[in-house]
Amino acid sequence: MPSNNNQGYSYNSSGTNSQGNHYCSRDYGSSAANSNSYHYSNTDGSYYYSNPNGSTYHQSSSGTSTYTAPSGDTYRSSGGSSSGGKK
């Protein structure tokens, strides 16, 4: 896959499976907390990000989202409004 050095990453792989779900994997190098980050998005509207800083974000098809910070703190919201809670 072609490198995209202007963005600070290179592509590992990307594509769409037979169900129409999309994924993309990127290499941010050894200096990133999570060098091999990725995201996927599904036809039901759900998606998931594993970010180079070590955080993750998931949104379900029902609109519930979960963000986990690099520290491990987890924040959840339901239907698009944040609960502001920390778990």
Search tags:
0% helix; 9 strands; 47% strand; nine-stranded antiparallel beta sheet; disordered C terminus; mainly beta; 87 residues; Arylsulfatase, C-terminal domain; disordered N terminus; single chain
What are the SSEs and their pairings?
Elements: E1 3-4, E2 9-16, E3 22-27, E4 36-41, E5 47-50, E6 56-59, E7 65-68, E8 74-78, E9 81-82
Antiparallel strand pairs: 1-2, 2-3, 3-4, 4-5, 5-6, 6-7, 7-8, 8-9
Short description:
Residues 1-87 are annotated as: Disordered. The chain is mainly β and 87 residues long.
Number of domains: 1
- What top-tier CATH class fits best? Alpha Beta
What is the residue-averaged pLDDT?
85
Number of helices: 0
Binned strand content: over 45%
| Unreliable spans | 1-6, 81-87
Tell me the distance between the termini: 38 Å
And the CATH topology? Answer: Arylsulfatase, C-terminal domain
Radius of gyration: 14 Å
Q: If strands are numbered along the chain, what order do they take across the biggest sheet? A: 1-2-3-4-5-6-7-8-9
**Helix/strand/pairing class, anyone?**
mainly beta
The sequence of SSEs as H and E is: EEEEEEEEE
CATH-derived architecture: 2-Layer Sandwich
Number of strands: 9
Q: Helix content range of the residues, please?
A: under 10%
Q: Shape from CA axes?
A: flat
For the report, how would you describe the main beta sheet? 9 strands, antiparallel
Biased composition (Low complexity): 1-21, 30-42
Biased composition (Polar residues): 43-76
Region (Disordered): 1-87
